[in-house]
Amino acid sequence: MHCTIWRHPKPRGANGRCIGGRTDLPVDPRKAKRLAHRIRQHVRRHGLPHEIVTSPLRRAADVGRWLQRWGFRWQVDAALAEMDFGAWDGRAWADIPRSEFDRWMTDFVGFDFDGGESLRQLLARAAAWQPPCALAVGHAGWISAWSWRGAEPTPATWPQSLPYGGSVTSAA
């Protein structure tokens, strides 16, 4: 089975901040509806079942709510949540000292952001995920980890660039 995973719409209040699994920001309802409409068109074009799974975070789940209103079966899966950036989550990038970034680069895949989730843990969580259907809405870091199954990224290759509302299709 192939699975298309869409990145949620741009959340309000994210500019310049480290936003992960602990920071549950809202999205403009019109943007959530717009992405839901694009997903619905994708389903029609490809003859897919009206089923979707999303992260529990509002920026992804709001898209699922729209699709549910239009007759989709919607599931929430905590395994799709964005990486937990621990003590960094929600902070302005500019407020994180250079020494903290240096700590991260010293142990790029093992660093847990002082109580959060390491990239190694995110990679394992994403690799273990079994899509229950052909469509999902998640987060850029998680989608990158899912795309990297079986490989270990470096600072130069992480994360993959995926615009808000963009998608990746891959064999599950």
Short description:
Helix 1 packs across helix 2 and helix 4 (119-128) crosses helix 5 (140-147). The protein has five helices and five strands. The chain has one domain (2-171): Rossmann fold, CATH 3.40.50.
Walk me through the structure.
The structure is a single chain. This protein has a single domain, classed as Phosphoglycerate mutase-like (Rossmann fold), CATH 3.40.50.1240. The protein contains five helices and five strands, in the order βαβαβααβαβ. The chain is α/β, with parallel strands linked by helices.
Query: Fraction of residues in helices?
Result: 25-40%
The number of distinct structural domains comes to 1
Largest sheet at a glance? 5 strands, mixed
Q: What structural class do you assign from the helix and strand content?
A: alpha/beta
How do the strands line up in the largest sheet? 3-2-4-1-5
What is the count of β-strands?
Answer: 5
- In terms of per-residue confidence, which ranges show pLDDT below 50 for 5 or more consecutive residues? none
Helix and strand element order: EHEHEHHEHE
The CATH topology comes to Rossmann fold
| Shape, per Cα inertia axes | globular
> Proportion of β residues?
5-15%
Give the C-alpha Rg: 16 Å
Mean pLDDT: 95
> Helix segment count?
5
End-to-end distance:
6 Å
CATH superfamily: Phosphoglycerate mutase-like
The name of the CATH architecture is 3-Layer(aba) Sandwich
CATH class equals Alpha Beta
